[in-house]
Each structure stands twice: as structure tokens, then as C-alpha cells.
Specification:
- A hairpin with a 3-residue loop joins strand 4 and strand 5.
- Helices cover 37% and strands 24% of the residues.
- The longest helix has 17 residues.
- The protein has a five-stranded antiparallel beta sheet with strand order 2-6-5-4-7, with helices on both faces. The chain has a two-stranded antiparallel ribbon with strand order 1-3.
- The protein is built from six helices and seven strands, in the order αβαββααββαβαβ.
- With 203 residues, it is an alpha+beta fold.
- The radius of gyration is 18 Å and the shape is globular.
Length: 203
């Protein structure tokens, strides 16, 4: 995970320095966004949420015009079951099959823990870094992929990219800024900030 987070950070630094952060135009008019999807998500506990919210308040002081996730929205994506697109209804017709397969695969699974430590970014967003304490999450993802593929439900999984980290996306960039350097400096100063650990028992 650390290598992935570091690569994202270097890409973000380039974007901040050159003023080429990638803006999501839908954030200004969310009603026009027809994309939908279904993800299997894990929600961090209240302690982690409170620490992240405190950090977001600090970001808001230097970049108030960007889009901030609210604590009830914080999540790490375990698997993007039906990837977000405007054609989501085609896959959603088989939702009962998806749910049956997910429930069978998740039954009697051990809990897993994620340590949220440090901040990274991409040209599009700010993320809290997550680090699994063992291989339970990776094994769960592989087992879910295998089960969905076996039912003929897996052709769109990992279509955009194969999810391999346990991060929380907490800010998305939706408006241009005259100077991205104050945000870059704040993120840089918090690259190793501790946000706590969550023990996930339900998804």
C-alpha cells in the first residue's frame, strides 16, 4: 500500500505545483450526474471519524471551496460490486443474485482491522491512508471476486482499476484555486498523522 500511496502523492504534488488538479464538474451540479453504482463498504468507527473531521476542518481553512465528505459518508471500499456508470441499471437488474452471493461469501468471516495513518492525495482528491493489520481484507476481496465470477456477475469488477488499498477519500476537487500551495503544505505536514484504528465487524 505504501508504494501506491507514495505514487499518488507524487502525482498530486505535480498537479498542485502546476495548477493542474483535475476537477469533477459534477460536484457543482450533482443533479445532472446520472452515474450510479453499488459498492461493498466498511465504515470507520466514531473515534476515527472524529479525528478525520478535525483534519477536514483544518483543510477547510485553506481550501473552503472544495467538496468535503461528511463523517456519515466516510468509508473504505471493500469492492466496487457494480462500478459507477450511467448504464448501472443493466447490472442492477441482477441485484438479488449479487446480494445472495455476497451474503454467502461474507458468512462467518473474521473481522479485520485497518490502521488509518497519514495523508495522501491524487490530482483529484485527498485521502486518508489505511493499512490492514493482516491479509484478511485482501483475502476477502479475492474470495468475493472469485464467487461473483463463478455466478457470472464479475465481468465489470475492477473495470476501472483493481482496488488494492484501504483508504478513505475525504475531499474531492470541484473548483479551481488561484494557489494550491497552501493546501499542498498542509497535506505535506500531515503525511504521517495518526487517525486511529478501526476493527471492522460488519460491512
Amino acid at each position: 500500500e505504501q508504494a501506491i500511496y507514495e505514487k499518488l502523492w507524487q502525482d498530486a504534488v505535480t498537479a498542485f505545483d502546476s495548477g493542474t488538479a483535475r476537477l469533477d464538474s459534477f460536484l457543482q451540479n450533482r443533479q445532472s450526474d446520472k452515474r450510479r453504482g453499488i459498492s461493498l463498504a466498511a465504515r470507520p468507527d466514531a473515534n476515527v471519524c472524529a479525528r478525520v473531521k478535525k483534519f477536514l476542518d483544518e483543510i477547510a481553512a485553506v481550501a473552503p471551496e472544495q467538496y468535503f465528505y461528511q463523517p456519515q459518508e466516510f468509508h473504505l471500499t471493500v469492492l466496487s460490486v457494480i462500478p459507477s456508470s450511467e448504464l448501472w441499471q443493466q447490472s442492477a437488474r441482477r441485484l438479488p443474485e449479487y446480494l445472495t452471493t455476497l451474503n454467502a461469501t461474507l458468512k462467518n468471516r473474521p473481522a479485520f482491522s485497518i490502521k488509518f495513518s497519514g495523508v495522501t492525495a491524487s490530482p483529484e482528491a485527498v485521502m486518508i491512508q489505511g493499512f490492514p493489520t493482516d491479509n484478511s481484507l485482501a483475502q476477502l476481496r479475492d474470495d468475493l471476486r472469485t464467487a461473483l465470477q463463478a455466478r457470472g456477475l464479475g465481468k465489470n469488477i475492477d473495470r476501472r482499476y483493481k482496488i488494492a488499498t484501504a483508504h478513505l477519500t475525504v475531499v474531492r476537487f470541484g473548483k479551481p484555486m488561484n494557489d494550491w500551495r497552501p493546501l499542498k503544505s498542509l497535506l505535506e505536514a500531515n503525511r504521517e498523522r495518526d487517525f486511529g484504528t478501526t476493527h471492522f465487524r460488519s460491512l
